[in-house]
Amino acid sequence: MLLNDLYLFSIIVDCGSLSRAAKQLNTTVATVSRRLCALEAHIGQSLLNRHARGIHVTQAGEQLYRQYAVDLQTIQTQLTEFKSQSQLISGRLKVLAPSNLATTALADFWPEFMRTYPDLQLDIQTSNHIQDIAEQGADCAIRVGHLPSSSLVQKRLGTIESKLVAAPEYPDITCVTELSEHTFAISQQVNNLTLSHPKQGDYKVTITPTHFCNDIALLKVMVKSGRCIALLPLSEASSCLQSGALKTVLPQWSGVERPVYLVTTSRKYPPPKVKAFADMLKQFMVQQPWAS
């Protein structure tokens, strides 16, 4: 508060009156007068004498102005310039992202983001394992699935729906109860899958997995062989469904929706570059057929 009042005192001296100083500082004359009185009380000396035509700076006021006030104005100017520079979307932005999502569903997002913010240096680190933001020195991370509670800030970007898919030549399935008789390729060691229907609700399918793969892109290749079914996120399967390389099995049934989050470390004052990234990524996902 003392530094702010010293800065206010310097503005009063430069303006030559309390009213002009109040106008420059976008405040009231009463506030300026009160803070000036508080500064004089703290120092124990009168700094200004008020008169009808304005103000007269006392000897103590002259000394204070010469020793401190001018330097404070310089600091204030530098702080204003620093704030202006810090609001620019520039510098380096390091993002952690799941490999499959980053290289397929978000493939069109990265060049669009780079064109929008040409002064930003984008550093994308992909992995199918959850990486620690602090250890990696990252600004943010894209995470898929429900996250445990933590001190990190979690901004929900949307959800990804999953569908049962198969090769076009794979035999048609007409009822959900038939699924237990078919061969599945899965990414996790499980014996059942939970599917949802808008009218019939949830149904748990007991399966006997035959093929396993921890990479969704390779899982998609296995399904294209025509030898199995898989429950794939639409972010990975939508392009193949549109081209006819895959077909949807039991279209009315879906897997559990998986939320997508942007995780950051700064809760109160996120850097402008992180906020710009989060806003643009959320807008991108809203426009995608595989997200909701």
Automatic annotation (TrEMBL):
GO molecular function: DNA-binding transcription factor activity; sequence-specific DNA binding
Record's keyword annotation contains Magnesium: no
Limits of the HTH lysR-type domain: 1-58
Keyword terms of this UniProt record: DNA-binding, Transcription, Transcription regulation
Keyword check for Protein transport: no
Biological process annotations from GO: DNA-templated transcription
Database matches in PANTHER family: HTH-TYPE TRANSCRIPTIONAL ACTIVATOR TTDR-RELATED, HTH-TYPE TRANSCRIPTIONAL REGULATOR
Similarity section: Belongs to the LysR transcriptional regulatory family.
Name of protein: HTH lysR-type domain-containing protein
